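Protein Record: Sequence and Backbone Structure Tokens
======================================================
Scope: a single protein chain, as residues and as a discrete description of its fold.
Tokens: labelled as protein backbone structure tokens, with as many entries as the chain has residues.
Position: the record begins directly beneath this header, with no further notes in between.
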Amino acid sequence: MAAAPPAGDLSGRLFVVSGPGGVGKGTVVAALARRRTDLAVSVSATTRAPRPGEVDGADYHFLDDAGFDALIAAGGFLEWAAFGGHRYGTPWSSVGDALRAGRRVVLEIDVQGALQVRARHPDAVLVFLHPPSIDALSVRLRARGTDDPDRIAERLRIARWELDQAGLFDHQVVNDDVERAVAAIDRILDA
């Protein structure tokens, strides 16, 4: 899975959509990808187990700790971070071929990863996706049914830190309506 990063300027070709867990990054990016056939959406790697219905290589590349460590050692990640007791990262193999072919690539990643991308590739365009409010985010996390109350409290604590980082992003979009958020990001891609 390891691949070398593409050479050259990535301006206008590497986009990051980030924000707190539960803000709707996946929903917004999936809708954007249906609208924009010129985009390639990266597939992240994770050490967590697949959730029901998730497919290896489509939803995530599911790796054990040794496989993740090997990819780190090989320089195979554009970015990676620990979150919720698991690790997540963007393998270069998930973006490199599309970038080398001149395509635009969208990464749907957490705020830690987005800030790593900014540090390594200042020419990347970073979009921060906001929830309508922290209360709305809490409702979304509870409605998912994937986390216990302690985990939700931890995710909300992390979300507050993530929201404080929004000013480090090039653009900020509120996801109070999926179609409106997708349209806003679509305009950013065309700017």
About this structure: The longest strand covers residues 77-83.
